[in-house]
Write a structure and sequence with these properties.
Elements: E1 2-7, H1 11-20, E2 27-33, H2 37-47, E3 54-55, H3 58-64, E4 69-72, H4 79-88, E5 92-96, H5 103-116, E6 120-123, H6 130-140, E7 147-155, H7 177-188, E8 192-200, E9 212-219, E10 224-230, E11 243-248, E12 251-256, E13 259-261, E14 264-266, E15 269-274, E16 280-281, H8 291-305, H9 315-333, E17 339-340, H10 341-345
Parallel strand pairs: 1-2, 1-4, 2-3, 4-5, 5-6, 7-10
Antiparallel strand pairs: 7-11, 8-9, 8-17, 9-10, 11-12, 12-15, 13-14, 15-16
Helix pairs in contact: 4-5, 5-9, 6-7, 7-9
Amino acid sequence: MVKAIQIGLGHWGFSWSKDVIPKVPTVEMVGYVDTNPDASQRVQTELGIDPKLCFASLEDAANHTDATLALCTLRTEAHYPVVKRCLELGYNVLVEKPFTTTIAQGKELVELAQAQGRVLMVSQNYRHQPAPIAAAQLIADGKFGALNMVSIDFRRHGPSQGYRYWDMPDPLLADMSIHHFDLMRFVLGDEPVRLSCRTWNPPGSPFRFDPSGVATIEFSKGTVVSYRASWMNSGPVTPWAGEWVMDGAEGQIAWSSRDHFRDKAGPDVMTLQPLDGKREKVKLDKVKFPDRTGTLNAIAEVLTGGQVPRGFSSGQDNLGSLALVQATILSASRNGDWVDMKEVLG
């Protein structure tokens, strides 16, 4: 059993408290932290949390609990200072994505975790779904031979779907695309070497910053990813993980994941299309701890068993996904000029 505290009980943090934490039996909550008394009162009133477990500061929680894991579910700009303080206090940390706003901050936290002998994990929840898990295994097994091209489409219409963060900087690349960028690295088992990206803000958009973009990303093994995504697309809605077509020398793997829309959940789907063969639907294995429960369960397993599972999104690993965000933003600022990943990662 892993004893944990949660820091950040706002809109998304409350969702963790209500919908995620109770579903992972190996985690025992011994503290909830938020500087806003209304947020603390909400978990007490709506979730029945003991007021004695609620604290107004991290230091107060650290002094009154014996937790070994800190679950950081705050706004992005608070990730770096809070995670840093958690590591300094000796906690293992699970933090929401993106875990920092700069590569320099990310590297500092990774080095601090290593120096403290603590586990730092980023909650890349899209990895914990049936289709990307199956796709990653198929690619690792060489299904259909060497990959040539991967096409990914993400389509949502924010104004008609309850989107709220109209003033968020880089609402596509930093907040949404990081999921897709992380899945690229996870599924391909490869790292990007360079990319080109353009973004724009369509006429009539309520977004302050660009909600639409396209990118071409080259990976080290020769695979080229064509990525198209938008928060202002009036076409058919895609699942949250997007629609993927992975073209190999001997056939195609097509899949989609996290088909959640208007509180309705559809299953992950995958089909295989051999060259000159018949399309076949794949029966996907059920994931015991899907999505965010998967990230929380994964770090609990590491802390109790000491074995790091395949696809574990450590802070070190996640620097590659954060770098894709930074590189696409940089390329877009240069009107689509090619950016080498080395320029961003240093």
